[in-house]
Structures are given as C-alpha cells and as structure tokens.
TrEMBL record:
GO terms for molecular function: RNA binding; tRNA pseudouridine(38-40) synthase activity. GO terms for biological process: tRNA pseudouridine synthesis. HAMAP family: TruA. It catalyses: uridine(38/39/40) in tRNA = pseudouridine(38/39/40) in tRNA. The active site is at 57 (nucleophile). Residues 148-256 form the Pseudouridine synthase I TruA alpha/beta domain. This is tRNA pseudouridine synthase A. It is an enzyme of class 5 (isomerase). Substrate binds at residue 115. It comes from the Bacteria. Belongs to the tRNA pseudouridine synthase TruA family.
Amino acid sequence: MQSKPFSYLFTVSYFGARFKGWAIQKGQPTIQGKLERVFRFVLGNEDFTILGGSRTDSGVSCLEGYFQFFSKEEINWENYFDRLNQNLGGEIKLLGVIATERSFNLIAGMKSKTYRYFFSDSILHPFATAFVAEVSEGKLDFSQMNAAAQLFEGEHDFRAFCTLSESKSDYQRSIIHCLISKSDQFSGEFFSRETRMMEIKGEGFLHHQVRKIMRAIWYVGLGYWTLEEISGRLELPEKNWEKIPPAPPNGLFLWKTELQDF
C-alpha cells in the first residue's frame, strides 16, 4: 500500500535492446532502474515510488506504455520534464504526464495490451535485426500462419504457451485478436520488403506468452507443426507437452496500452 499522497501517470516509450527488461535487477541495466536514477538526479531526492504497468522482458521495446509515480510532495512537471528526457539519453522517452487520484491503481486500470512482433524469412542486414527477427530456417507459409494465429483468439488456458511459475495457478487468458500481416513499419536499404508482423491484443499476458505463441506460429509456417498441434495444446493444456522456446526478444514491441476510464 502506497503511503505517498500524490500520484502521477506517465506515458513512456523505450528501445529495449540494451536493457534487461523493465524490473530492477541487481547489477543489470533495466528500464525502471534507469528511470529511478534519472528521477533521483533531476528531482534531487529519492522520496518517490515508481510502479510499472507492464514488466517487459529483456530486449523487448515499447512504443506506448505507462508507469505510475507516487510522491510525498506535489510536483510541477513543467519544471522538470525536458531535463528528465535529456538525462534519459534517448533510449527512454517520457511522452506525457497527468495527475491522477490517489486511489487510481494502474495495474487494475489496464484494459488491454497490444503487442507487435516483426519478422522476416529473408536474410537481414545486421542493422535491421535490432527491430526485426530473422527466421532463417526456411520460407514461411503465411496463409497457414494466419490460420494458426486465429486459433489463439478467445479465452484459453495458455500454460502450454508460456513459462510456468510455481507461484502461479491461473493460466487462463483472453486474446481479443491475433493476426499475421505484411508490415511497412520499417523501410529503407537495411530492411527487407517482405517484413511481416504478428499483432496480438489481449487483456493481459503471461511470462513469455507472446514470444512462445510467435514461435508456435513459425513452426506451422515452416511445416514443422500442423494446426492440430496448436489446437491440441489449447484443448489439453496440462498434458506433458514438449516445451516451446520463446521467439527472440528483438522483434517484439509493446505497441499500445489501453486503460479503463478514470
């Protein structure tokens, strides 16, 4: 329970390649860790708490996310906003801030999250691989991949498509939509004209869920799996299935976060 009386909601974007995820880890560069260091430096105190809305994995980027900032004192952010962004160095960018009621709970206020995973079955320039994952095992069947993506829509037990945790018992999640399409988000001499993306929107996601779903869809596109392999894992999630490795983090972006009205 937060005791600090003033609450602010920040919108944030970041390029996650050099960071070991959102959450603070001792001796590792993380998004939250850098935010806290910069806020301490610019504000001149450490009497605040930062609560993230999405704990992205190591190497994952974010186009639009949120974090809640609790302070004992009321703050006029116009006096600090530009300096905060200057000291964040460009890889993390604060996009906006509003004051909220003290009772506002960011975690409970999440309505949906949309992730995009960019990939190509073409050989990529090294510069492009910071944003797009290379599927080098062969050519992909995109019509089969779209059929596979649609199997994930709806409410399912996703324990066969996430990293399990001893502290978690509820693996039921709802996927609003999941689709494969062409993408023109990245272009230029270093990028393939055949870049595709998976867009997946849900109310919330389990650890590695998006990346394991992406890997499963690649398996179908490469002909390693049939559609029945996916539907079987969704229908019998507690069966002792072979574990799926998550797709690499470098193609994954938290694209949009929707909040409940407040």
